[in-house]
Amino acid sequence: MAQINVNGSSHRVDVEPETPLLWVLRDVLGLTGTKYGCGIAACGACTVHVNGEPVRSCSTPVSKVEGKRVTTIEGLSRDSSHPLQKAWVAGQVPQCGYCQSGQIMQAAALLAKNPNPSRGEIVRHMNGNICRCGTYNRIIAAIQRAAREG
User: Fold this and answer.
1) Tell me: the pLDDT tens digits for 103-119?
2) Do 35 and 101 contact (CB within 8 A), yes or no?
């Protein structure tokens, strides 16, 4: 049994301590915005925040998040009004969309620490979040837009 706080709500989940957070979020709590991409923390599709830091939920055991705040894409804003979400829509960023929740969560962590990053800082911070459709230029533009308008 684990006690976790996800998107501001406390949950008791009956899972093994080594169960990846990703599966607790998706299969136990029904928060399917966080995606499974690779299972080895190499692609970023499963990125969530733990105490404000981006982590790969596919390789983070649920036992590591007890007593911490987990935020998923569903918790970023209740009505898709987060500046990044609005910039993503305005810039028509997604092609297939599969990686986008992880991209947005990675970008949100950057903007929380650095509200006006340079293009180089954005590229460095987003490195490791893979988009198979190759929408990297639109992702960068959306982050820059969110920084300007956010």
Assistant:
1) 999 999 999 999 999 99
2) yes
**Cβ–Cβ < 8 Å for 35, 98:** yes
Residue at a domain's end among 76, 93, 126: 76
CATH of the domain at 30: 3.10.20.30
Last residue of a domain, one of 56, 76, 96: 76
Does the predicted model carry a pTM greater than 0.90?
yes
- Express each pLDDT in 67-89 by its tens digit: 999 999 999 998 999 999 999 99
Gap between the Cα atoms of 82 and 65, Å rounded: 24
Length of the chain: 150
Q: How far apart are the first and last CA of the chain?
A: 39
